[in-house]
């Protein structure tokens, strides 16, 4: 591939938030007619970079050059007008309007203030045709599946880059120079992804530069030409996709060379009795995780490893009945559990601490005491309140045991720090004395000290016979705690590895990258 | 172990939905259903009261004459509901306009030509204020328009506790004017209401503002991200509703020729019911003013049928309205869940 | 230091503002009616402005208490006015059909019948909201519209007047020198407080209203809770309906309980319960209802024409809502502290780490330590 002048160059980009340097001295370039993957783990700075580029965030340092001209956008609208269009993960369109309207709303062709419907439909049909889509532009958007809606969003964004609003020159003409696709595939199935890729290749052939963000490694290798890897807000490197294999990429993203990872994990795992507690058979849900089998022993810690978006959380939610599975069964202690609502799993002794503490865990208006008692109370029903004395004793015990600060049961939980909120959530479930505790990213966003405490707690709980399903982004964490490691990749449980002295983070990395375990 | 063959069947025709599915998803279906309901009810009326003059074309035209003000109010409410909001102040605004007009004409002796624009301006301004508060302070439309309900009903009473009958010759001649249609006649109020309907249809379907109303009702967040000026639209929608309520108030004044602090109490419910029965989703984003017309006609026809029946009392109107409302809300519910699935 | 911190604790108490407004409103009356606070004993009954405020406010307190729980789950019930009318109509029409209107058993049966109708309305509302998933405003709109028609249907469009001594007691009678309805209200409020705070109902209601998804994941069966609160709300409205019809010894399907839903919502909001659901305060609601009733009385005593009552109410709704709106507070009060960037700053990342606690919050902490 010849290397002409890049259509977009970002140099020395710096973005600071109060107390955090989200991007420091990042360089990035994008050539016309290429599909470029932006890679990195959560918090690496991908979305910050995109937002700086599209004018959502202001720039704290560095330069952006578009087509040889230095630019700086104050708003997404300005970026759009300059030819940089963005399509986000969620389809930001109006499902109640027709496809044609969604493409044109806000810039409908009008004459004397009257919308020219015929012209609008023709233009829309032309745009859609040109991109090789076979859809009826007069049908409401909601009558099409999500994938098609995503494609329509792309058509719309291409049309906007056109600038003058007459629909001319869209479809990758002089209008849109750069198309940013921020995780467009996360809710699409395989066929739908192929549709999207076909469109991307077409646009690429027309000379559009595409910036593509996806958590699916296979997709990157399928469609992208070049990639830029970010880590902790800094540029790691830029590669041609053909020059870097998946293992190498994962190492770059996680920032560990294979050699460095060969370290011992000294902690001695206790042995388990080998009695099965929970058994999942063919449990799956379309669009979230492929059917899987899983067995968890009493007192066993199972760690889930995989990149963000690989299906870790989805697996846990299915086990708990938080999402309704399409297929499969879960049995706990030999008894089948109803998965139509979480109540079934809770009744069987399963507890789930969500990774989204604020939206799915805590009730921020209520006090620490009320939040802690909630699960136990829900199980008892409203007529049998936990007696005040017992309640206060339990709450005091767990506030002390988990060192929740402030140690004031009357404090509103919304005002606690992240680590303490996490401990409140843990306390809530520990009070119910569950048989299986599912912890989804319990250590995310909390300080080192609290992190270590929570890990110690997991060890001691499992030694006491409680099973734990532990999800964490950091492989060392998973490896240190788990008897068994389940590896997920592209929404599939690809391997179950029994932990032992010979298992290292690099072995797991290989599995994540290749999808196979030898 | 039932893990396979679940999803593939959806794949082949995912691009072009089947004809049946499209028909069910068609947003005009509820309007057609309401129109059909109207025709069926009208047919029932014809078969039962044929010999009591129900077949007279004038009976049909009277539906417009007797419900013109409701139609105008319901058109305003349609705008609000399409945008995903709600307006409870309609009835009070109508009552206030009747009082305000009667007071200005009778007690202050102002000429009608001045009073009419003044009343309309006050209504539009009231709506604007409510829209402004709703948008800028992010307070639920429900509670803001509730305050509007109190305020305008209170202002009615401030003007006068007693009803003011209008003896102005201009008003009565306007009220009695008939627009002949050959087979019958319409009142000026009915004609105005049909003009408002046509205008509303044009605005909603042929202007950018109208499409923004739909867009905001469909998905406010998306509308914002798509760069639509959503604040202005929201405020404008309540302004339109305030204006329509004031106009409905004027028509009501013409119809009843008096101002009364208790006029049109609870008419917001009739207007909302007409809009919902007309097939507009209460969650916003879907519906047609034409549906609202049929909704109003259905409500009007219920009243006429009950009158013709003679033995039925007026409260059956309310019960029938409630039952229809319930049926349509449940139908809407099933339609929207089907779409999501 | 201690006085200021005590003062701060007092002003931060959730009931402080409602009670302050109530006291202020009561005091406004004194210059106009010097003996406003005096209570006289006549014929073994207590009379006075305070007594009548509670007496006339009784139905509103009842409805508002029920409404509080519904609002706490994140819902709203517009149908309470219609339920008031239906209950009154059914009870009065049953009593009026009795040969002996004064017979206690007949009256009790009639009241039971009326309350049963209220419960049915509540079940219907709860069913639509919790099982069918219809927005509460819309679901309860149905009975709001149809209910008045049903009430008129029961009374045959007439105002049914009855002459029943036992029935008169609830809304117009006296007991132990006080209006009997005050005791009814006291019992209902006490039962509600006991029901919500002695059992876990209050906690679960606040949890469902505070974070519905978290509540689901913690295993709370929110649909049961919701149905229960709608039934309870309708029951409260039913008792209020009995009281209103008893007070006037008549059932008016058209006007009984007219607009009481709006007053009740207003009372709840004044009482400090957020319309978004979550934390609720029964005490606050009672104070809120008393504020509304006192407002009415005050307007009457200070000689402002009574018809301006509604305008004042509108003003109260607007002021209370504006004060509760974070955006309004930011715009009006935030501007004083030089937060001029507020409007422009919205373009800045919302996801940026939360600012360190504002200095205003730091002060009380220092005092505590």
TrEMBL record, chain A:
GO molecular function: ATP binding; ATP hydrolysis activity
Keywords: ATP-binding, Nucleotide-binding, Repeat, Transport
Signal peptide: none
Tagged with keyword Transport: yes
InterPro entries linked: AAA+_ATPase, ABC_carbohydrate_import_ATPase, ABC_transporter-like_ATP-bd, ABC_transporter-like_CS, P-loop_NTPase
Protein name, entry field: Sugar ABC transporter ATP-binding protein
Organism lineage: Bacteria, Bacillati, Actinomycetota, Actinomycetes, Kitasatosporales
Coiled-coil intervals: none
Pfam families (alphabetical): ABC_tran
SUPFAM superfamilies according to UniProt: P-loop containing nucleoside triphosphate hydrolases
Source organism: Streptomyces griseoruber
Domain ABC transporter span(s) in chain numbering: 8-257, 272-515
Top-level taxon: Bacteria
Automatic annotation (TrEMBL), chain B:
InterPro entries on file: ABC_transp_permease
Compartment(s) of residence: Cell membrane
Primary location recorded for the protein, binned into one broad class: membrane
Pfam families on file: BPD_transp_2
Gene Ontology, cellular component aspect: plasma membrane
Membrane topology per record: Multi-pass membrane protein
Transmembrane segments: 29-47, 59-82, 112-133, 139-160, 181-204, 235-257, 269-302, 314-331
Top-level taxon in the UniProt lineage: Bacteria
Key word Transmembrane helix present: yes
GO molecular function: transmembrane transporter activity
Keyword tags: Cell membrane, Membrane, Transmembrane, Transmembrane helix
PANTHER family: ABC TRANSPORTER PERMEASE PROTEIN YPHD-RELATED-RELATED, INNER MEMBRANE ABC TRANSPORTER PERMEASE PROTEIN YJFF
Official protein name in the record: ABC transporter permease
Automatic annotation (TrEMBL), chain C:
Keywords: Cell membrane, Membrane, Transmembrane, Transmembrane helix
Membrane topology of the entry: Multi-pass membrane protein
Localization (cell): Cell membrane
Main location: membrane
One GO CC term on file: plasma membrane
Annotated TM spans: 15-34, 46-71, 78-96, 102-124, 136-154, 174-195, 227-244, 256-277, 284-304, 310-326
Gene Ontology MF: a single term: transmembrane transporter activity
Residue span of region Disordered: 346-369
Top-rank taxon, per record: Bacteria
CDD domains named in the record: TM_PBP1_transp_AraH_like
Keyword check for Hydrolase: no
PANTHER family: ABC TRANSPORTER PERMEASE PROTEIN YPHD-RELATED-RELATED, GALACTOFURANOSE TRANSPORTER PERMEASE PROTEIN YTFT
Protein name: Sugar ABC transporter permease
Species annotation: Streptomyces griseoruber
């Amino acid at each position: 591939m010849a290397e002409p002048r890049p259509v977009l160059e970002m140099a020395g980009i710096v973005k600071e938030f109060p107390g955090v340097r989200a991007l420091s001295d990042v360089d990035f370039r994008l050539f016309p007619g290429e599909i470029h993957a932006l890679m990195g783990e959560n918090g690496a700075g991908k979305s910050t970079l995109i937002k700086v580029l599209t004018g959502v965030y202001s720039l704290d340092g560095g330069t952006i050059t578009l087509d040889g001209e230095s630019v700086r956008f104050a708003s997404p609208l300005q970026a759009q007008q300059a030819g940089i269009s963005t399509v986000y993960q969620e389809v930001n369109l109006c499902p109640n309007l027709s496809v044609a309207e969604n493409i044109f709303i806000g810039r409908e062709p009008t004459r004397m203030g009257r919308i020219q419907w015929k012209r609008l439909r023709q233009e829309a049909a032309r745009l859609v045709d040109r991109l090789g889509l076979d859809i009826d532009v007069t049908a409401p958007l909601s009558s099409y599946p999500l994938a098609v809606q995503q494609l329509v969003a792309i058509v719309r964004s291409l049309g906007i880059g056109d600038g003058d609003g007459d629909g001319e020159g869209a479809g990758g003409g002089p209008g849109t120079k750069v198309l940013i696709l921020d995780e467009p595939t996360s809710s699409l199935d395989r066929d739908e992804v192929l549709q999207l890729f076909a469109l991307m290749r077409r646009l690429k052939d027309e000379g559009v530069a595409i910036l593509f963000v996806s958590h699916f490694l296979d997709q990157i290798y399928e469609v992208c030409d070049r990639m830029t890897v970010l880590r902790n807000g800094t540029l790691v490197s830029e590669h041609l996709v053909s020059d870097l294999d998946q293992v190498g990429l994962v190492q770059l993203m996680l920032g560990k060379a294979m050699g460095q990872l060969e370290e011992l994990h000294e902690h001695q795992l206790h042995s388990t009795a080998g009695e099965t507690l929970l058994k999942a058979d063919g449990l799956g849900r379309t669009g979230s995780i492929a059917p899987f089998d899983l067995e968890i022993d009493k007192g066993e810690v199972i760690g889930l490893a995989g990149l963000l978006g690989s299906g870790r959380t989805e697996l846990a939610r299915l086990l708990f009945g938080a999402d309704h599975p399409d297929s499969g069964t879960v049995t706990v202690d030999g008894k089948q559990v109803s998965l139509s609502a979480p109540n079934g799993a809770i009744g069987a002794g399963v507890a789930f601490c969500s990774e989204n503490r604020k939206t799915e865990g805590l009730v921020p208006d209520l006090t620490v005491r009320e939040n802690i008692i909630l699960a136990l109370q829900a199980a008892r029903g409203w007529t049998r309140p936990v007696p005040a004395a017992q309640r206060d004793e339990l709450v005091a015990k767990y506030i002390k045991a988990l060192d929740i600060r402030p140690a004031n049961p009357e404090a509103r939980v919304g005002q606690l720090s992240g680590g303490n909120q996490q401990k409140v959530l843990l306390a809530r479930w520990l009070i119910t004395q569950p048989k299986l505790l599912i912890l989804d990213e319990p250590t995310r966003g909390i300080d080192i000290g609290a992190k270590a405490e929570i890990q110690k707690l997991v060890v001691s709980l499992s030694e006491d016979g409680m099973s734990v399903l532990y999800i964490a982004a950091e492989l060392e964490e998973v490896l240190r705690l788990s008897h068994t490691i389940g590896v997920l990749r592209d929404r599939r449980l690809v391997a179950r590895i029994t932990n032992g002295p010979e298992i290292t983070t690099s072995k797991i990395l290989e599995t994540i990258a290749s999808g196979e375990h030898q | 172990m039932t893990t396979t063959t679940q999803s593939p069947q959806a794949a082949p025709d995912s691009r072009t939905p089947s004809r049946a599915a499209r028909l069910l998803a068609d947003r005009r279906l509820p309007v057609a259903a309401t129109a059909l309901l109207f025709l069926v009810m009208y047919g029932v009326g014809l078969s039962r009261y044929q010999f009591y003059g129900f077949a007279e074309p004038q009976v049909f035209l009277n539906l417009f004459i007797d419900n013109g003000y409701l139609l105008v109010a319901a058109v305003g409410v349609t705008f609000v509901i399409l945008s995903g909001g709600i307006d409870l102040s309609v009835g009070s605004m109508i009552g206030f306009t009747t009082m305000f007009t009667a007071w200005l004409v009778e007690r202050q002796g102002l000429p009608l030509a001045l009073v009419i624009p003044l009343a309309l301006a006050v209504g539009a301004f009231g709506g604007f204020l409510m829209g402004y508060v709703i948008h800028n302070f992010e307070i639920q439309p429900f509670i803001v328009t509730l305050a509007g309900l109190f305020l305008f009903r209170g202002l009615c009473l401030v003007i006068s506790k007693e009803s003011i009958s209008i003896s102005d010759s201009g008003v009565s001649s306007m009220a009695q004017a008939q627009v002949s249609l050959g087979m019958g006649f319409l009142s000026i109020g009915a004609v105005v209401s049909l003009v408002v309907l046509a205008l509303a249809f044009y605005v909603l379907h042929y202007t950018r503002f109208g499409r923004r109303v739909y867009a905001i009702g469909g998905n406010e967040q998306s509308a914002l991200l798509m760069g639509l000026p959503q604040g202005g639209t929201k405020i404008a929608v309540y302004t339109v509703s305030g204006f329509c309520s004031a106009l409905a108030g004027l028509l009501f004044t013409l119809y009843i020729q008096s101002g009364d602090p208790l006029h049109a109490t609870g008419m917001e419910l009739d207007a909302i019911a007409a809009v919902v029965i007309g097939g507009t989703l209460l969650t916003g984003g879907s519906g047609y003013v034409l549906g609202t017309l049929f909704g109003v006609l259905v409500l009007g026809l219920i009243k006429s049928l009950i009158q013709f029946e003679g033995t039925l009392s007026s409260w059956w109107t309310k019960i029938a309205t409630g039952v229809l409302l319930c049926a349509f809300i449940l139908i809407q519910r099933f339609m929207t869940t089907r779409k999501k699935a | 230091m201690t006085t200021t911190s005590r003062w701060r604790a007092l002003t931060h108490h959730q009931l402080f503002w409602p009670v302050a407004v109530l006291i202020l409103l009561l005091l406004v009356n004194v210059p106009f009616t010097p003996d406003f606070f005096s209570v006289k004993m006549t014929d073994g009954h207590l009379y006075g402005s305070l007594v009548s405020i509670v007496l006339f406010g009784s139905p509103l307190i009842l409805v508002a208490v029920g409404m509080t729980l519904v609002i706490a789950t994140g819902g709203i019930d517009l149908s309470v006015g219609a339920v008031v009318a239906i209950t009154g109509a059914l009870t009065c029409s049953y009593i009026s059909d009795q040969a002996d209107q004064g017979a206690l058993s007949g009256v009790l049966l009639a009241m039971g019948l009326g309350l049963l109708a209220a419960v049915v309305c509540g079940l219907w509302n709860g069913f639509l909201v919790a099982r069918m998933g219809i927005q509460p405003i819309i679901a309860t709109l149905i009975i709001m519209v149809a209910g008045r028609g049903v009430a008129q249907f029961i009374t045959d469009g007439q105002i049914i007047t009855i002459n029943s001594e036992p029935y008169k007691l609830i809304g117009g009678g006296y007991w132990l020198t006080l209006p009997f309805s005050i005791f009814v209200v006291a019992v209902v409020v006490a039962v509600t407080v006991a029901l919500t705070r002695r059992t876990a109902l209050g906690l679960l209601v606040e949890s469902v209203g505070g974070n519905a998804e978290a509540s689901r994941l913690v295993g709370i069966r929110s649909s049961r809770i919701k149905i229960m609160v709608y039934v309870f709300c309708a029951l409260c409205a039913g008792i209020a309906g009995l009281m209103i019809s008893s007070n006037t010894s008549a059932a008016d399907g058209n006007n009984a309980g007219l607009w009481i839903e709006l007053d009740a919502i207003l009372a709840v909001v004044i009482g400090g319960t957020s319309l978004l659901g979550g934390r609720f305060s029964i005490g606050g609601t009672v104070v809120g209802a008393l504020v509304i009733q006192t407002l009415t009385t005050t307007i009457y005593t200070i000689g402002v024409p009574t018809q301006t009552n509604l305008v004042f109410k509108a003003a109260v709704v607007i002021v209370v809502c504006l004060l509760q709106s974070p955006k309004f507070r930011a715009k009006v009060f935030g501007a004083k502290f030089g937060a001029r960037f507020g409007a422009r700053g919205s373009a800045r990342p919302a996801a940026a780490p939360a600012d360190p606690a504002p200095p205003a919050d730091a002060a009380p902490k220092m005092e505590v330590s």
